[in-house]
Design brief:
The structure holds 2 protein chains of 2 kinds. By secondary structure, chain A is an all-alpha fold. Chain A is built from 21 helices and 2 strands. In chain A, strands 1-2 form a two-stranded antiparallel ribbon. Chain A is globular and about 65 Å long. By secondary structure, chain B is mostly helical. Chain B has a two-stranded antiparallel ribbon with strand order 1-2. At the A-B interface, α8, α9, α17, α18 and α19 of A face α1, β2, α2, α3 and α4 of B.
Chain lengths: 494, 164
């Protein structure tokens, strides 16, 4: 079956009325959480995980995917109008977007953000379609040694790329891997760290942990501030001028390309993509000296990049079963709940799922473009809704979600504990992302390490004798060594 | 209203960072002691203790390194500042309300707990009026119950509502 046939088949799946509805719900919810500061796509997907039990797999993933790329559209709205990034990935958009708004050009900035997002979103879906099957084929040759090295590389990159002090990120990775060992050991079935508590026997459930770290912690941190009201007015005239389009064409193309590949990279994702593309424009943009003072390039490039990255990050998840950022970790949890283990065979074994979701992304991006441009006024009104009223809704939905996983209060308690922990992590500058990814990768990593060592009769050199594994480990050394080296250089110079 | 948090504002200081590093090391030490009896196995057949115990040792090392660097004040000023007195009161109030809800979740039921938490959040954290907070609490709890328990079929405890 060729790519085109498969895609046509996928459209057949995605265009069924029920699927269209779930896609619409997904992108609409995504746009809303993108707009609302203090509620990100990761927390939202965690909130909706229990709801997806009742859906079929394809509809569930279509909806959750829509939330992710939809939030990239929505995040720009607050960034431009209020200089508040709705998502961390729209942080760069605040720089020029807000300046444009001050100069009375909020409309064109919002319009360009939506258009750049649409172009990047659509182009990167084509990339996803072409690249994913290739990587899937390559991954068929992966044994336990390769998988272990790959996951190690993923965690190393996450530790160094998520920002903050690398040492703290390393500690979070180790803590996450350690917490993942709670419960039955994956090979022999020995109980570990259960302390005789029955509900720990199968390990910590991921959903309450996610909801605590991303839902409850966020509410605690936001409500800690005294309540304030946002005052903004709806902009008029959304169409960018012809000159705007001319200036933005290059940045959109560069942002899309960079964003897509940074999304594929473990530890990459929308936030880093937007930063890198902005920095790139500082070198290449037509009005690079105007960047930061309200240049349209400064809106177009990061908005293209964060959308392209959100699509690109589906590739490692769907072909290797390895999530590269928190949102993909939630996706993996959703797939697992549905009884699907993504891996190299996913595209062949679940063609309806893969191509249906890909096709839904084309449809979803189109919906977002249509949705975003005329509805900006409505979204601005939503922003006036005080967070005070939103906070209890988020908390209660988290509670329901955590409770409904196994219908036991222990999970609510776990969520609460991780909520408080997540709040403390923020205060102390520990990023929760490495912890969550390590928690998810812990079991498969231990399994592949132990399997690789048993197969090689305890010979550690298996990790460097297998060529793919050796290359991956070399990348680990490079990734871990580079920041250290740079620090040395800077110190010896300074 | 207190001063707004700007990106340039310094986060929590070196002493908190030092304590955090020691806590990290302590967690590693706890895991090492709690998992001491686990079978390490041999290299050719690693046992259930191999992975967690190596991680514990690494975590202790990472914690000590963090504490060391914090003591040398390399890590100060990262993260966000601790809340002021009013902010701390708000956070503690929220945690207390949520803990109470968890404790009484099954005996009082979802609706009563949810209305209570919402009331506390609005009245004592958000600074809204008594009536607004109470009405919003009851309405929100009822709406969520109808939506999740009735419509989506989520199994939520009815508690005192069932007895009435």
């Amino acid at each position: 079956m060729g790519v085109l046939d498969a895609l046509m088949h996928g459209f057949g799946v995605a265009l069924e009325p029920a699927r269209l509805l779930y896609c619409f719900v997904g992108v609409l919810v995504g746009t809303l959480v993108g707009i609302l500061p203090g509620l990100g796509p990761a927390a939202t997907i965690a909130l909706l995980l229990p709801v997806t039990y009742h859906l079929d797999t394809v509809s569930a993933i279509i909806m959750l995917a829509g939330i992710y790329y939809g939030s990239q559209y929505g995040g720009s709205t607050t960034a431009i109008l209020l200089r508040i990034p709705g998502e961390s990935s729209s942080l760069m958009t605040t720089l020029d977007g807000y300046q444009m708004a001050l100069q009375g050009r909020a409309g064109p900035a919002l319009g360009m953000a939506a258009i750049a997002s649409f172009i990047a979103g659509t182009v990167s879906v084509i990339g996803l379609m072409l690249v994913a099957p290739q990587i899937g084929r390559l991954a068929l040759a992966f044994g336990p040694a390769e998988y272990f090295s790959l996951m190690l590389l993923g965690l190393t990159l996450v530790a160094y790329l998520t920002g903050g002090a690398p040492l703290k990120a390393v500690a979070m990775v180790l803590a996450g891997l350690l917490v993942a060992t709670i419960g039955q050991d994956p090979v022999a079935g020995t109980e570990r760290y259960t302390f005789g508590i029955g509900s720990l026997f199968d390990g910590l459930d991921l959903v309450p942990v996610f909801m605590g770290l991303f839902g409850v912690a966020e509410v605690l941190a936001t409500m800690e501030q005294p309540p304030g009201e946002a005052r903004i007015s709806a902009p008029k005239g959304l169409m960018p001028t012809r000159a705007d389009f001319r200036d933005a064409a290059g940045p959109i193309a560069r942002g899309t390309f960079l964003g897509f590949w940074l999304g594929v990279l473990p530890g990459g994702g929308a936030t880093i993509a937007s930063v890198v593309s902005y920095v790139t424009e500082k070198r290449f943009a037509r009005h690079r000296d105007m960047l930061g003072k309200g240049a349209i390039e400064g809106v177009a490039a990061p908005e293209a990049a964060n959308n392209a990255a959100s699509t690109g990050s589906f590739i490692p998840l769907l072909t290797l079963g390895i999530p590269t950022n928190v949102v993909m970790a939630m996706m993996l949890a959703a797939l697992t709940l549905q009884g699907i283990r993504p891996g190299p065979l996913l595209i062949q074994q679940q063609p309806v799922l893969f191509w249906g979701v890909v096709a839904s992304m084309y449809v979803g991006n189109l919906m977002l473009l249509v949705l975003n441009l005329p509805l900006v006024g409505v979204f601005v009104r939503i922003l006036r809704l005080p967070y005070t009223y939103l906070a209890p809704v988020i908390l209660l939905v988290c509670m329901i979600g955590a409770y409904s996983v196994n219908v036991q209060v222990t999970d609510v308690l776990v969520m609460l504990v991780f909520g408080v922990l997540g709040w403390a992590f923020r205060k102390l500058g520990y990023d929760a992302t490495p912890f969550v990814l390590a928690l998810i990768l812990g079991r498969p990593m231990e399994e592949s390490l132990r399997l690789a060592l048993s197969l090689s009769q305890g010979d550690f050199s298996v990790f460097v004798r297998e060529p793919i594994s050796a290359v991956l480990l070399a990348a680990v050394v490079l990734a871990a060594g580079f920041p250290l080296l740079r620090g040395r250089l800077r110190r010896s110079r300074g | 209203m207190t001063a707004e948090a700007s990106p340039a504002q310094r986060g929590v200081g070196g002493r908190s960072q030092l304590v955090a590093g020691l806590v990290v090391a302590a967690i590693g030490a706890f895991a090492l002691i709690a998992g001491w009896g686990l079978d390490l196995g041999a290299l050719r057949r690693p046992g259930p203790g191999f992975f967690p115990l190596s991680l514990s040792v690494l975590l202790i090392a990472a914690g000590i390194a963090i504490a060391w660097r914090a003591a040398a004040s390399v890590l100060a000023g990262r993260g966000e500042p601790w809340p002021d007195r009013a902010g701390a009161r708000r956070v503690v109030t929220m945690i207390a309300a949520l803990s109470a809800m968890t404790l009484f979740f099954e005996s009082l039921g979802f609706v009563a707990c949810a209305a209570g938490v919402t009331f506390v959040m609005l009245r004592f954290v958000g600074g809204r009026g008594w009536v607004t907070s109470a009405v919003f609490g009851v309405v929100l709890a009822a709406c969520l119950y109808l939506m999740f328990a009735r419509w989506l079929g989520v199994d939520l405890p009815t508690g005192i509502l069932a007895r009435m």
